[in-house]
Design a protein that fits this description.
heterodimer; A: 114 residues; seven-stranded mixed beta sheet; four-stranded antiparallel beta sheet; B: 115 residues; mainly beta
Chain lengths: 114, 115
């Protein structure tokens, strides 16, 4: 059974629209993260959450907003989409302290913005 | 600022060969060094990590890595590769303290194993 679920697997959006990327983990972890991988840049850290609280935000734009409705959920809302947002977005989780170097990654959501 | 450099974008070897994937880092603090593997179309999987102690650490599937403070390196090795080892390998650094658990990745090395 998949331990980290990301939905949808593929997503196509038009410029200016808004989308929500879903992430659920069933590993019992209390820390969750978002990373982005694109052709132009290597894997890039976006956010970290611990016990549903934001720990770090490395995105330059407020168009990216994580949402944690439950402790095993960390969704990513992206507004005013741009073609440069096209990338694969990975959700990850870990134990919150001491084990943060071992993160478990979901399969990713591949976002294409036209 | 943490930086991680993987100097080889692509490495191609034959099945049964040994391989070394190189990683150099720059960071002036207490860090964890780790390696991750990404098979095509999949998420990343943790292979191994180093924090302190024996500089040679063992991971899954016969992988090992050696830390060198003098060279600021953490190279990944495998004595005999299998075709299923074909994947992208990422070296990563994270601070041992601070709490945000941010992984800073290198650019990745594509390993192609010819059967």
């Amino acid at each position: 059974d998949p331990k980290i679920i990301q939905k949808p697997k593929y997503l196509v959006a038009v410029t200016g629209s808004e989308k929500i990327l879903i992430c659920e983990q069933y590993l019992g972890h209390n820390a969750m993260y978002w990373y982005r991988q694109s052709a132009k840049k290597p894997l890039e850290f976006m956010f970290s959450y611990s016990y549903q609280k934001l720990m770090d935000n490395q995105t330059a734009s407020s168009r990216f907003q994580p949402q944690s409705s439950k402790k095993n959920h960390l969704d990513l809302q992206i507004t005013a989409l741009k073609p440069d947002d096209s990338a694969t977005y990975f959700c990850a989780s870990s134990h919150p302290t001491g084990g943060g170097y071992e993160q478990y990654f979901g399969p990713g959501t591949r976002l294409t913005v036209l | 600022t943490q930086t991680v450099s993987q100097s080889d974008a692509h490495v191609t070897v034959f099945e049964g060969d040994s391989v070394e994937l190189r990683c150099n880092y720059s960071y002036g603090g207490s860090i964890y060094l780790s390696w991750y593997i990404q098979h095509h179309g999949r998420g990343l999987q943790f292979l191994l990590k180093y924090y302190s102690g024996n500089p040679v650490v063992q991971g899954v599937n016969g992988f090992e890595a050696e830390f060198s403070k003098s060279d600021s390196s953490f190279h990944l090795r495998k004595a005999s590769v299998h075709w299923s080892d074909s994947a992208v390998y990422f070296c990563a650094v994270t601070m041992a303290t601070g709490g945000n658990n941010k992984l800073t990745f290198g650019q990745g090395t594509v390993l192609s194993v010819i059967p």
